[in-house]
Specification:
mainly alpha; Rhopdopsin 7-helix transmembrane proteins; 68% helix
């Protein structure tokens, strides 16, 4: 059995690294508040995203507090009184601190994965597309609840052995699959709109390109962290305890970075006047099919009955996608002729 580092050493290292990342996530939380409240084109505040941001901060705070208590208990409070010393304490998965911190981690994971799935639905407006991610999310919930429950009744003191090891492995694998699939679906749709807009506007880059990059970056960072945790656990390395504690603030950071980037994009590009060509929808008023459109990204309701709903075809919905990531509104841009 490969353990790589001692459990007491892993506890100290993981708490320090988690504290550093937690401090960084606090700064990004403030940036997220700015992005959500700095509504230069709208007086509405997205309560859904605000609630998610606050819950992520709450879970991260509770997790690091429990980690600090756990480190103090194992290294100071029960150092001499616990049978077997610090190593036995940290290997005891039935300790309340281990059970509670993993329960909070499960809630954080479900919330973070749920947001990505929700964004997929908002942008695609298709239930069949998100059926598989939702099923995977439900599987994550089942294994996530099962892991702390089994740990609370476990007496062997080895997290890698027996049924608990299989439950934890399944949890890591399922949440990794959920994140990869959801991020891929979301990024692919934004890429489709970005490519369509680039062709329609006659330029190589649209305003969605930075949003696409940050979504991919967030997905890659989170996925690599989960992959590292899974590999450490499969190889029975105690390094998985270090990676596991780092995942908590990383989930918050990846959520905040998307909201902040969208907020920057909306601040820079509140209203656009676009030259739009539609050979297939030429009207008698515009015999050459040339319309100058003004897109208000804060109004995502359909304004005209004849407004095309296929945003893969029309570049005028580029900013609707940006807005939908934070607003949760349907991707139907309000288009006004000027």
């Amino acid at each position: 059995m490969v353990h790589s580092i001692a459990l007491d050493t892993a506890a100290v290292v993981s708490t320090v690294l988690e504290g550093i990342l937690y401090g960084f996530s606090l700064l990004m939380f403030l940036g997220t508040l700015w992005a959500l409240f700095d509504r230069r084109s709208s007086n509405r505040v997205n309560r859904k995203m605000l609630t998610v941001a606050c819950l992520l901060l709450l879970f991260s705070t509770a997790h690091i507090i429990i980690d600090i208590i756990r480190a103090v208990d194992g290294l100071v409070k029960f150092r001499d009184s616990f049978p077997g010393g610090p190593l036995a304490f940290f290997s005891d998965v039935s300790q309340w601190s281990f059970v509670y911190k993993n329960a909070i981690y499960t809630l954080q994971t479900l919330l973070g994965d749920g947001v990505v799935i929700y964004r997929c639905y908002v942008i695609r407006q298709s239930i069949p597309v998100i059926i598989l991610p939702v099923l995977l999310w439900c599987s994550v919930a089942v294994t996530g609840v099962g892991c702390p429950y089994i740990a609370s009744t476990y007496n062997t003191g080895d997290v890698f052995a027996g049924s608990i090891g299989k439950w934890i492995t399944s949890f890591y694998a399922l949440t990794l699959a959920t994140n990869l699939l959801s991020t891929a679906l979301l990024a692919h749709r934004i890429w489709q709109v970005d490519r369509s807009a680039s062709h329609a506007l006659g330029r190589r880059k649209s305003h969605l390109r930075p949003i696409l990059h940050v979504i991919l970056d967030a997905g890659v960072v989170y996925s690599l962290t989960l992959l590292a945790a899974l590999l450490c656990f499969v190889t029975k390395s105690n390094g998985q305890f270090v990676v596991l504690d780092m995942v908590m603030p990383i989930i918050s950071i990846t959520f905040y970075m998307v909201i902040i980037r969208v907020g920057i994009s909306k601040t820079e590009n509140t209203t656009y006047a676009l030259g739009y060509t539609s050979h297939s929808r030429a009207t008698s008023r515009h015999p050459l099919g040339m319309n100058r459109m003004e897109v208000h990204i804060t109004t995502l309701t359909e304004c005209k009955a004849d407004t095309p709903r296929s945003f893969a075809e029309d570049s005028v919905v580029v900013e609707s996608i940006v807005e939908s990531i934070t607003e949760g509104a349907e991707v139907d841009a309000c288009i006004e002729e000027v």
